[in-house]
Write a structure and sequence with these properties.
heterodimer, A: Transcription Regulator spoIIAA, five-stranded mixed beta sheet, two-stranded parallel ribbon, 7 strands, B: Heat Shock Protein 90
């Protein structure tokens, strides 16, 4: 399977913001999962996955996000999601994956929540 | 409208099928929901066939047939791997409260069952072919 698509990653304050690609199908996941795992393992803290570009998720993508969450939680980190388009939000709701992750409408709200004392 | 393709039961076969899905969603002029459904069914069902129907020591063909008539999308997927009737597969445990408690087995099959209107399955013991038909839209 083709690899090499890069995930856009930036550090905003102490939050690692990851821009996920449009299609998180078998091809999309294979192209980013290694880089995502490495970036998150190096950061060991707060992660924000920006899903505003994502138009397709399959079960493989949900597993990838959950694996990422499981990797950072023991280190005191978290993975939060932002910008889910309606069909994607529906998939999260149906699978109850919306109970695993804190989900915010946009980056500004999510970053503010991360910096809030209780966040 | 009808289109069909045959690929090998491998990951590269799945990549070919996803590209095929791209080309026919334009050709059939599918709605966004129908496009999502077609891609999801292909991804989840074909992944299962590659992972569990076939094996590293034995793989075979996967055939995909797509029909679109009267706002009804029908996908027929055939393979010669282990028989598997997804209608009999137990649903995943979605009553989790934390990630550690989650049993994710069958999540892809769960999505397919949630999103389509009708599923039928046959296995022909003589030829070894499995045939799964999923339909979304007005049922015949």
């Amino acid at each position: 399977m083709k690899k090499g698509k890069t995930v856009k990653v930036e550090l905003i304050n102490d939050v690692l913001v990851v821009q996920l690609p449009a299609r998180l199908d078998a091809v999309g996941v294979a192209s980013i999962e290694e880089q995502l795992a490495m970036a998150v393992a190096n950061h060991r803290g707060k992660v924000l996955a920006d899903m505003s570009q994502v138009t397709f998720v399959a079960s493989l993508a949900l597993r990838m996000l959950l694996t990422t969450l499981k990797a950072v939680q023991p280190l005191g980190g978290d993975v939060r999601l932002v910008g889910l388009q309606p069909p994607i939000a529906e998939i999260f709701r149906k699978s109850r994956f919306d109970t695993f992750f804190r989900i915010y409408p946009d980056r500004t709200t999510a970053l503010a929540a991360y910096t809030a004392p209780s966040g | 409208m009808q289109r069909q393709i045959q690929v090998s039961g491998t990951w590269s076969g799945l990549v070919t099928l996803l590209s095929f899905s791209d080309s026919i969603e334009h050709e059939f002029n599918l709605s966004p929901d129908e496009r999502y459904l077609m891609r999801l069914v292909i991804e989840e069902i074909v992944s299962n066939i590659i992972k569990y129907g076939y094996s590293e020591s034995y793989t075979g063909p996967i055939q995909l047939e797509c029909h679109y008539h009267n706002d009804t999308l029908q996908l027929i997927i055939r393979d010669q791997g282990c028989p598997f009737d997804l209608r009999e597969h137990p649903p995943p445990d979605l009553n989790h409260t934390s990630a550690d408690e989650c049993d994710l087995g069958g999540l892809g099959i769960f999505f397919v069952r949630e999103l389509v209107d009708q599923i039928s399955y046959t296995h022909d013991p003589q030829s070894g072919w499995n045939e799964l038909t999923v339909t979304k839209g007005r049922l015949p």
